[in-house]
């Protein structure tokens, strides 16, 4: 298995619920390292650019409204098989379909307010990590 990086976002609903620490703890307990992190309130431009692949989808405006409704915590997670491992920890996009014990099953309210984002491939991860972080903001521990 390869050591990978993936981009994780704790979305505004989870920040509002005060579960930042609980979510980060799940990543660490699963063997992922947090090698970069920042809290920020996304501008519309930032959210639209991040989700550009969904621009034509009917839920795009709601998604951007939601992602700019409050602060988020953006992180880079590093570890073996990090992309898939994070997707497994997150659970399905719709929390009603998310497996028990996953982040979305435990903390998400609905398909649009679904607690976390995680890159869905190593290709997306590379783009998404670079979207939020410059190389000197990433601190691998080796
Ligand atoms: P993912 O976050 O599980 O990778 P994507 O299909 O990439 O899911 O969708 C990005 C985000 O768009 C989802 O996390 C969710 O917040 C929102 N979204 C996806 N599908 C719908 C929908 O049918 N209605 C409302 N929001 C949706």
UniProtKB/TrEMBL annotation:
* Pfam families found in the cross-reference section: NDK
Catalytic residues as annotated in Swiss-Prot or TrEMBL: 117 (pros-phosphohistidine intermediate)
Annotated GO biological process: CTP biosynthetic process; GTP biosynthetic process; UTP biosynthetic process
Q: Which GO terms describe its cellular component?
A: cytoplasm
Cofactor(s) for this UniProt protein: Mg(2+)
Principal location class: cytoplasm
The UniProt GO MF terms for this protein read: ATP binding; metal ion binding; nucleoside diphosphate kinase activity
Chain residues that bind ATP: 11, 59, 87, 93, 104, 114
- Protein name per the record: Nucleoside diphosphate kinase
């Amino acid at each position: 298995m390869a050591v990978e990086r993936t981009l994780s976002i704790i979305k505004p609903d989870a920040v509002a619920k005060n579960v930042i620490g609980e979510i980060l703890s799940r990543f660490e307990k699963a063997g992922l390292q947090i090698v970069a992190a920042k809290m920020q309130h996304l501008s519309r431009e930032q959210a639209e650019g991040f989700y550009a692949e969904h621009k034509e989808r009917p839920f795009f405006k709601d998604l951007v409204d939601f992602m700019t409704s409050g602060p988020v915590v953006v992180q880079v997670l590093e570890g073996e098989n990090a992309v898939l491992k994070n997707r497994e920890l997150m659970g399905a996009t719709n929390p009603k379909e998310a497996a028990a014990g996953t982040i979305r099953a435990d903390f998400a309210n609905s398909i649009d307010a679904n607690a976390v984002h995680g890159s869905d491939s190593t290709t997306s991860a590379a783009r998404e990590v670079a979207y939020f972080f410059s190389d000197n903001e990433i601190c691998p521990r080796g």
